[in-house]
Amino acid sequence: MVDGIIEAADFKHYSAKRVIWIDKTPNQVPDWIALEFKQPVTVKRIVLYPVENSLKDYQIQLWCDGKWKTVAEADNATGEYHEHRIAAIKTDKIRIWITAVRGAYAKLAEIEIY
């Protein structure tokens, strides 16, 4: 989920012209977004750019041995971006499992995976 705009400040004045992910269940959690790659990739760092500080509590999960494995989590996360460094893991799927939000919706402008 990358459009080349990586500065969270660019999203302070969100407009309909921006492409972002918004969950479809207002005021209900959990919410999630998953990315699937054509071939396995090695993941060592994940950076999330929430819109309007919407992500509060969440888990970052990787698909390992046929099930989701939580590799990082946040409680009461704040800030323009959230960076998570993990031990290198090879996977073909990543999921952000959101359990609490600020406002009615979970909103993400960018997910970077390194």
Automatic annotation (TrEMBL):
It holds the Pfam family F5_F8_type_C. InterPro entries: FA58C, Galactose-bd-like_sf. Residues 1-114 form the F5/8 type C domain. This is F5/8 type C domain-containing protein. It comes from bioreactor metagenome.
